[in-house]
Design brief:
The complex is a heterodimer.
Chain A: H1 8-18, H2 29-34, H3 39-62, H4 72-94, H5 96-102, H6 104-107, H7 113-123, H8 128-158, E1 160-164, E2 167-170, H9 184-211
Antiparallel strand pairs in A: 1-2
Chain B: H1 2-13, H2 24-29, H3 34-63, H4 72-94, H5 96-102, H6 106-110, H7 113-121, H8 138-166, H9 178-193
Helix pairs in contact in B: 1-8, 3-4, 3-7, 3-8, 4-7
Classes of the chains: A mainly alpha, B mainly alpha.
Amino acid sequence: MAKKQKSIGEVFTNGLFKQNPTFVQFLGMCPTLAVTGSVESALGMGAGVIFVLLLSNMSISAVRNLVPSEVRIPIYIVIIAALVTVLEMLMKAFVPDLASSLGTFLSLIVVNCIILGRAEAFASKNSVARSAADGLGMALGFTGGITLIAFFRELLGAGSITIWGDLSFQLIPEAYQISLLVQSAGAFLVFGILVSQINKFRMNRADRNEVA
Amino acid sequence: MELIAIAFGAIFVNNVVLKQFYGLCPFLGVSTKKSSALSMGMAVTFVITLSAIIAHLLYVNVLVPNKIAYLSTIVFILVIASFVQLVEMVIKKFSSTIYSALGVYLPLITTNCAVLGVAIDATVNSAKFSFFDAIPTLAQVTVYALAISIGYALVIFLFSAIREEIDAYPVKRNWQGIPIALITAFIMAMIFFGFGGIV
C-alpha cells in the first residue's frame, strides 16, 4: 500500500457513509428488499449481519497468514457458514418470532455478498483490530440503510413504526396508508426513489467540490 | 394436476426475483444485455434444479436420519460450491462453445442466493409453502426447482430487454443505472402481482 494507511476511525466511518453497502455499493440486495417490510425485521436482520460480519472479519483476519491463497474462498465460506449457523441457533432459541419472520433470509446471510466481499477485500489483508472496525462500520452502514428503507415502507404502507414487540407507534390512520408499499412490489419503488435522491445529493456535493 | 399448480405458482405467483427477492445481485448486475441475461438464466436453471435435488436427497437421507439437520446451511453451501466447480470443469472439458457462453457466470452462481434459498425452502423451510407435503417428495422438489429457475430466466430476460430499450432514452443523471432499473422492476413486480389471483 503506497498511500498512508487509514486510521481505525476512518476505516470505521468508511463503511457508514462513503462506501455504504446499501446505497453506494449495492451489496446484499436480497435482504435489503426482502426484510424491509417493517422496521423491526430490518433491525433484526441488521443485528444478525453485525454479529456475523464482525466475527467473520475478525476470525478471517486472525487466520489470514495460515490460509493458502488457492483455497481461501472455500475456507472463508466455511467460517461464515459456521457463524451463521450459530446465529440461527441463537435467534431460534431467544427470539423465535424474529427468526420466523426473517425465515430463509436468516440462513441466506451466508451468501450475502457484503460478508464475503469484506473478507476478501479487507480482512484478508489487515490486522484483527482494523478488520473489526471495518466489519462493524460496514454492518452498521448496512443496518442504517435497510432501517431507512423499512422506515419509509412501514410508515407510509402500514402507518406505524414498530421498533421491538409492543414498542409500536401508530402514526397514520388506515384511510391514508399506501398498502402497496409494504407488499413486495413496493420495496423496489421505495428503494429506487431513495437511491435516486441519495445519488442527487452526492452528485451535487461532488459538483460543489469541483467548483470550489 | 398438483404438479402443474406447483409449476405455475413457482413461475408466476411466487416468482423468485419479484416476489421472493432471491438472486437480486445478478438480476440487476447481469441484465444490461439480452445475450448475457439469457446465458445467466440458462446457467442458473441448470444449477438451481440440480442443487435443489441434491440438497433434498442429502437432507432426507443423511441429515435428518443422523439428527444433524442443524448443519444443513453449512452442508448445502459446500455442496453448491463444489457442484458449481464440478459443472465448470465438466463444461470446460467437453464443450468450449458452452463454456465460452456460460463460463464467466458459473462462479457468480455460488453466491447467488437463489440457489441456496431454493435448496433451503425445499428442505428445512418447506412448511412455508402449503403445496409441499410435510416431507416434500422428490417429484415436488424437482418440479418446484425447475419452475422457479424458469421463472428466474424468464424475468431476467424480459428485464434485460426493457433495460436495452431504456438505454436509448435520456434519463436524469441521478436516476441512471440502478434507480431506474429498480423502478422498472417495481412495475414488473406489480404486473406479476396480478397473477396472484389465478392460483
